[in-house]
Amino acid sequence: MIRPMSHDLVIKSGQVVTPDGTAVADLAVTGGKIAAIGDGLYGAQEVDATGLIVLPGGIDPHCHIEQKSGMGQWNADTFETATRSAALGGTTTVISFAAQHKGQRLKDVVADYTTRAQRGAAIDHAFHIIISDTTVPDFETDLAQLIAAGHRSLKLFTTYNIKLGDADILHVMTLARQHGALVCVHAENDALIQHAKAKLLTEGKTRPEHHAASHPRAAEIEAVARLCQFAEYLDQPVMLFHISTAEAAETIRKAKARGARIWAETCPHYLLMTEDVLTQDGLDGAKWMCSPPQRTSEDQDALWQALSDGTLDLISSDHAPYRFDETGKLAAGPDARFDQIANGLPGLETRLPLIFDALVTKGRGSLQDLARLTATAPAEIYGLPDKGRLAAGYDADITLWDPHRSYAYGANDLHDNVGYNPWAGHSITGWPIRTYLRGQLIADNGQFLGTPGAGRRIDRPTAGPNT
Ligand code: DUC
Ligand code: ZN
Ligand code: ZN
Fold first, then answer.
1. pLDDT in tens, 336-353
2. CATH superfamily ID and name for 58-370
3. Of all protein residues, whose CA lies closest to atom 6 belonging to ligand 1?
4. Cβ 318 under 6 angstroms from ligand 1
5. Most exposed: 262, 281, 310, 460, by fewest CB within 10 Å?
6. Which string of DSSP letters, residue by residue, matches 347-360?
7. For the domain 6-56+392-448, what is the CATH code?
8. pTM (two decimals)
9. Quick check: CB of 64 below 6 Å from ligand 1?
């Protein structure tokens, strides 16, 4: 009798979500790779997944980890704390930032972030290189070498003190086109923000809730339209980060219809929060301050529509962790004005459960939509080889989900280093029970089993199919 091949691990009888469909099947893992999906598979270790959903491990392609902000403030997470939190939320790959500050050589910046990530990251990772100074020595040589070494995405800002002017943006986009990198942009018009901010401060409107008006929707609408024009003019792919307004989504829809090589993302806090979260007692609203700010329920509807018709390609967390104390949000003191408070909220651990609930449980979309928006599209767009789908030959990055388990988020129940949960009080149904990274169990029922430093840096030979 011919004995069937034995694998390292077989996840038995789960509902397996692949780009081709969703079906009850066994999934076999050998040597850290998915070996087969089918029936009657055998392994040295077998896990019964009856009643569970088997999804690709999440890929969060926009998160700030162990990074110094434009205002010069370190965020709260190390690679160790951020990736622990990610794993417990079902995420197995992150793309965070290697952030150049003025005067720094790009190759030194990337070496520094690479060393720190290699020491601490428990999941696989890559970097977007933030460019804030094109005048440093060997800028073009360093950039070309870094792109060739697999750092296939750059990030630019049109606002904050690390912004580039239009001429520099066009220059970097031209270099990216020449060397094969995707350009990601935080697109908000800086002059409009400065104008709105000055008016608010003159009127004595300094509280966290005034932060929303200091980032007028026109700022996003203008900058997104400009970047679409730049992408078309240079024929260079651009990823527009954290889209928050209906008008910006419409601009992207039209640009894509004209054939512009544009990608775009949004985040759970734009899909599920509105600007009224900023109105709280004292400075509490600072916990929810981010840029662009949360908008209106009409914008939320438009963003869901844009996800469903392909205008928006993926959902990232924009995890930007600052503690609500003097090391973070309150660094400028207990009476800080909104413009002195660090922007951002934690989201690595909550992104997938929130979207599972909002998309699948609430019936807005399918399990395949979930896999596409949170894993497959990020892998394809950013050129992450062997990641983002359940298929033979791909990395065995896998999450098992209980679609019936409900959970109400509490005040401080996340596993990052932030100390508060911006989703406290929000209830969801659908929960990640287990997370596997390349076949290794790294999170099991709320227990972290990963190893700091075991995450690998992902080399990206190309910047994705559109680049
Ligand atoms: N906005 C950003 O642009 N980056 C980090 C966090 C935020 O709110
Ligand atoms: Zn941003
Ligand atoms: Zn960001």
1. 999 999 999 999 999 999
2. Metal-dependent hydrolases (3.20.20.140)
3. 344
4. yes
5. 281
6. -TTTHHHHHIIIII
7. 2.30.40.10
8. 0.98
9. yes
